[in-house]
Amino acid sequence: MTLILASKSASRRAMLDAAGVAYESIPADIDERAVETGLEGAAPADVAEALAVAKAAAVAQQKPGALVLGSDSLVVCEGRRFDKPRSAEEAGEHLRFFSGKVMELHSAAALVRDGGCLWSHASLARLHVRDLSDDFIEHYLTLEWPEIGHTVGAFRIEGPGVQLFSKIEGDQFTVLGMPLLPLLGALREEGALLA
Length: 195
Description:
Elements lengths: L2 E3 L4 H10 L4 E2 L6 H5 L7 H17 L6 E11 L2 E3 L5 H11 L3 E12 L2 E14 L4 H11 L20 E5 L2 H5 L3 H10 L6
Parallel strand pairs: 1-2, 1-3
Antiparallel strand pairs: 3-4, 3-5, 5-6, 6-7
Helix pairs in contact: 4-5
């Protein structure tokens, strides 16, 4: 059975590679803001799940019969939703806002075949951001921009981004952008992995 990852995320590919999951990658091209239009007031986890389903469904239309994995992550801090920073300056603004606060990272995954959602799940990680000095933020952005422009929260936990945090509640896979353990269970149920 062919599994298709509807993402170009390096961290999601690395998770699947490390877990020994065979797949091919076809990034989804969807208008995320259009998907969110009907979701005003929805819980962040529900928005992340809806985006994961939409990404998988978009690729599933191109690949009849294939099992397609969509995934999405979003960050909320003090009730405010953050998207991927569009510039180093915006990343700096995000980091200054996060300083000394708790970021909520919602990571979702969905499996779709032939337009039908077979499974979806969202997990939450709470990331306690330490007090960040302007000097640290400037140095961090020098090291990490433009790579963190592809990430919500302006960090890569597998790189210098780990220095942003004093404490993390939740599993590493959620922080990396996909609820891997529930996903592996769903893939076994669908016959895509040995039980």
